[in-house]
Every structure is written in structure tokens, then in C-alpha cells.
Amino acid sequence: MRTAHSRLRPESERAADEGRRAAGLREHACAARERVHSGEADQSCGHVEAGGYEVAVRGEQLIAVEGGVDRTGGANAGDLIDDLIDEHRAVAEQRGVARAVDDNSDGRAGRRVETLLREGSVEAADDRPRAPRRPAGTLSVKSIAVLPFKDFGAVGDEERLGPGLADVLITRLSVLKGVSVRPTSAVLKFDGQDSVAAVRRLEVDAVLEGSIHRHDSRVRVTARLVAVNDRAMLWGAQFDEQPKDLFAIQDALSGQVAQALVSDLSDVEARMIAKRPTESIEAYQHYMKGRYFWNKRTTADAEKAIAHFEQAIARDPNYALAYSGLADCYALRTALPPGEAMPKAKAAALKALELDDTLAEAHASLALVKELYGFDYPGAEREFKRAIELNPSYALAHGWYAMHLTKSGRFDEGAEAARRAQELDPTSPSLHIYAAWNFYHSRQFDRSIEEVRRAVELDPNARTAYYIATYAYAAKGMYKEVIAEAEKAKSVSINHSDTLGVFGYVYAVAGRAGEARKILAELKELSGQGHVSPYHMAIIHAGLAETDPALNHLEQACRERVEALFFLKVDPAFDGLRDKPRFQELLKKLDLKP
């Protein structure tokens, strides 16, 4: 066996050996990584056991054999553990391995196996010095992403604890002033992916990642905070508890990470981080399943989320977060008409705040209800500001606030709020859509189209983006492009009447009045089968320059509290009606002072 000071063989020989052995090593090396990560690996004799195999260095190859490995703790085994410590120093330090290896090494990186352990391939040796571990309280982290922890032992996606634990940590860490925490909706997109890809897209200074292992009656969580620029470990720890003590793991994990990020936590921050929203494990599990479905962002999944939030409330009637989840679902994703959904959203948000008035999500949901259904714009502004004060990292609250400012004609403030939302979540197509609406209503049509393109790059099925592009091209008189964008919207739309409304307006402004009237007739027929928004009728009549029918349908939309009236004060589609007394009166009813 080689010593720590022996030379490696020529690169060509090493590459040939690696190629011959790579396929066989992949499975066992990856297994070794996970066993070490979880703390199961037996490192006391300088070897790692994984799935019945012992992994060690023989000669200049990392190999996996079913026995016969030297157990004396020689230099090769030391090199292996040294490299594993570089990948999982938190585990190594807790098990007392780090010092022994440091004492036996020459201070230089031996054969590096991180890539093999991470991806199942072998990386050539190098002599680069390792990035030192930095002491807590000396970090310079302004932004962080909490990635879903890898969950081993879960049966099905709903049973996984990893995404739920990430959501809890994100919620707690978001109260930290001066540290931007990427939202759950952003990090879930990288669930199961390599952390390097997540870091590149999320644009953060550090990532918190880890794993969860379930063994018999124990749950073991290993976590580490890693700097993006040099991959140095900033903090790491391992927690081992019974499933009923999962809350204790959450408390310790969030508290220690917060202390690593901010050495001088305020009393308010410390209390909010330590606060447990429920003491019921069953209620918590239903809440996590509810958030799992909510973050899928579809109407069907929102119905599943509602069922789980209601189950959580049944097990703990004082669970404020579960009421907040209900409010989000009813305000944004339910299939119910606004007249049924919005009162439910309002009741759930008010109940959440009655139980805990520090929930940013509940304040933002209440603001949305006040805005879209109650037409209480001053009240909505207060709630948006309170939500952002409580959680400055809540990207969606910034995005919704941008829309609030836009509909009031405060375009520069709205653009700034949208920009801040995009900074907090660079991966969200919705936040680019909010910016596109802002630029469209401020008559900056080219910039609006630019934001639409960014949204579509992130989500080719973002139908609202195509709607905005349709309206923007129509305002520019580019009717060939208008039809093309309307066709794209039609291809991804799930609401036939919405699509008809867009096409009817397109045909109207393009001078194809006959086709526009056919769509008006079709919408009228559809209204006999179910609810059709009078706003669709109004915008088509406006495109046809038919003033009285357009105003009639707008007044009907006002009586139904249709949320599309939100932008009525600034919408270019209705510029031809602005000087009409009935239109001015309608703005007053909506408290949208001209």
C-alpha cells in the first residue's frame, strides 16, 4: 500500500484504470457517500462500510470489495477519510475523526474523491489546498438558499420530509434582517438536482443542504452550510432524534443556522425563529403535505392542498399557518368563482392573524383579498407593507405589491417592487409577468414584451405571459405578431372563455369585426352553460369602439367584483372610454380615482 507521500502513476495509466473500473465503482461509491453523510459509516478503523461493501484506497485506485481490506488505518484509508471529511466535515468532527486524519496527513489534498462520491466518476488528484472552515459569526452571507434535504426511507413524494423541512427552515430564517432567503417555490424546482445547478440559477452566497435518514425508530438529519464562491463549509451539524421529536431537530437546526449567519440576533428574531407553530406532529405532517401540493401551483393540486390544510386544522384548531395556507389556496388557485372563493380566503386569513399576527403570508393573502374583492386599496397597502416588514424575503408579497402600485398609476414604484421580487426569486416566471404588466400599463410596450420573453424562457406554458404580449403588440399596431401570440396563449390555456376574450379583442382591434362578433356570440352562448366574465365582453366591445355595450359589461363586472377590473384605471385597452362620464363614475365606485 502506498504512503501519504508516494507519487501517483502517470495520468494515462491512471485514466485507463479509472475507465475500466468506473462502471463497477459507481454504485458502491455513491452508497458510501450517503452512508458517510448520514453518519452510519464505520470510520473507526480507517475504512467506510456501505451496503455490505468496504470502500478504501488500494494502490492508486478507489475500490469497493466485499472483504479483505486492510483495517489498520494506514495511509490510504487515511487519505480516503481525509477526502470524505472535506465533503462532510460536520459528520467527521462529531465522530472525532477529523483530528486523527489531520494528524496523519501532510496537510495537502491527497487523492480527491468528491466527484466520485457525488457523481459516480473519478476525478484526478490535485494538490489544491482545501478551503478552511470559517468560524460562526464571521460570515459575509447576504443571500441563502435552503435546498430540499435528500430524504432516504420515504415512501412516495407525500411522505418525504425533505421539502417540508426546507419550507420550515425558509419560513424561520426569513425573519433575519439583512439576509435574503430564497422562497420555497424557487428551491423546490431543484429538488433532487445537483446543488451546483441550483446555486447557479438562484444567485446566492451560500446554500444549506443535507440529508434525512430514517432507521428503525430514529430520524437522523445531517446539514451543512456551504459558501458558493469557494465551497468552504461555513457550518455543519448532525441531529439524531425519534420521529416524535422532529420539532426538536427543527428548533436546533434553525437556531444554529441563524447564529451562524447572524452572530447578534435580536430578541425579536430569536423569538420568531424559535416559535413552534404547532405541537401536533399529525397536524404538522398534513400542513407539510398541503404546502407540497400548493407549491405545484395548479388548480387541481390546490384542491388537494385545501384538504390537507383542513386536516391539519382538525388536529390543531389553533394552527395559524394552516389557515394561512387555506387563504392562499382560496385567493389564488381554487376553481370556485370569486364570489365563493374570496370570502373563504378572507375568513381564513383573518383567522390566521387572530391566532398569530406575525405571519407575513397571512397578511399578504388578506391584502390580496382586500385588493381584488373588497376594493379596499388603502387596507391592501397596509397589509402588503406589514407582510414585507415581517418577511423582507417574501418575493410573492413584493410581486403582489408591485401590482397594487401599478393599478394606482405609481409605475416607478411598481417597477422597483417587481425588480426586488425578481432579485429574491430569479427563477419565478410570475415575477417577470408582474413586471410585464407594469410596463404594459405604463405604455412601455417593448419593455413589457422583454419581460414576457423572460417569463416564457422559465415557463413555456405561462399563458398569462402570452396574453400580455398579445395586448402589447396590439397597442403597437403589430397585428401579425398579435395573432401569433394569441395562438400561443390558446395552445396552453385551460380556460376557453379567457382565450375567446383575448381573440375577440385581437380581431376587434385588427379590424376583423365580423370574427370579433362571432366570438361575442360564442361567449354569450357559453354564459348559459356556466360563468363567463363580463370583462371579456367589455374588452371586445371596447376594441370595436362600441361604447355603451362596453360600459354595460364593465358595470356588470363591477357588480360581480371581477378581479380583471383591477387595472381598469390604467389599462390601455379602455383608453377610448376614459372621457366618458359613466367610465369616470365606474372608477369612483371602484375607488380608482381618475
Describe the structure.
The protein has 594 residues and is an alpha/beta fold. It has five domains: 109 residues, no CATH class; 134 residues, TolB, N-terminal domain (Rossmann fold); 95 residues, Serine Threonine Protein Phosphatase 5, Tetratricopeptide repeat (Alpha Horseshoe), CATH 1.25.40; 98 residues, Serine Threonine Protein Phosphatase 5, Tetratricopeptide repeat (Alpha Horseshoe); 100 residues, no CATH class. Strand 7 and strand 8 form a beta hairpin. Helix 2 packs across helix 4 and helix 18 runs antiparallel to helix 19. The longest helix is centred in the first third of the chain and has 28 residues. The N terminus is likely disordered.
User: Alpha-carbon distance between the termini?
Assistant: 84 Å
Count of separate DSSP helical elements: 27
So what's the CATH class of the largest domain?
A: Alpha Beta
Q: Assign an overall shape.
A: elongated
Rg, please? 29 Å
Q: Tell me the count of domains.
A: 5
Structural class based on helices, strands and sheet pairing: alpha/beta
CATH topology of the largest domain: Rossmann fold
Please state the average pLDDT score. Answer: 75
Strand content: 5-15%
Number of strands: 9
CATH architecture of the largest domain: 3-Layer(aba) Sandwich
Largest sheet properties: 6 strands, mixed
Q: What is the oligomeric state here?
A: single chain
CATH superfamily of the largest domain: TolB, N-terminal domain
Helix content range of the residues, please? Answer: 55-70%
- Are there runs of 5+ residues with pLDDT below 50, and where? 1-132
